[in-house]
Design goal:
The protein is mainly α and about 200 residues long. The chain contains eight helices and no strands. Pfam families: DUF416.
Length: about 200
Amino acid sequence: MAIRLPLAKLSLWQQTAFCCALLERMLPNYAMFSQAAEFGDVNVLRNQLDLVWQRLDSKQKVKLNYEAQLEKLEAQIPDPEAFDFFGVFPALDVCMALMSLLQALQSKDAQEFANVSRLSHNSVSYYVELLLVEEAEQVDEEQEITNHAINQHPLMAWERATQNELFDFLKDAPESKASCQQAKAMVLEEGLSNLGIEI
């Protein structure tokens, strides 16, 4: 059950801020993977996200060379087949989400912005499914993990609530640095990534 927010109704600025805020919640997943796997440099992703935030502040004239940034990002993308632990998947989702955001800014394609929302949601959904499988195995239960069970999980509910709250805030927010700061504070106030990992 994907989150289908009418992102296309938002301005380009609002869509960008929405994606940046979601990426703030996803980035710690990459940092954790990178540390555990000794692969990639989270600072590259952090800098790219900061550059996009700066672009949203009209007082700063930030020019982005998209081709160069996408090339830098490509070097940080983990190959799931090269790592045998779960952390590679959320890390891959972070890279794909950041890539979608950079491509969205280049193409102004609402679908690319929507991809960021979908990738954040999918990250949580996949993680929750694994948690439920583990729980079932611990009590020796052969059970099929239903979409309903995944959707009822607190992490999934929190993901939906966060995206909805962010959307509602940004659709009426003035396009300012203060709105960016509020959006960022809103998604980070729990001090957790979208998978519930402490930041």
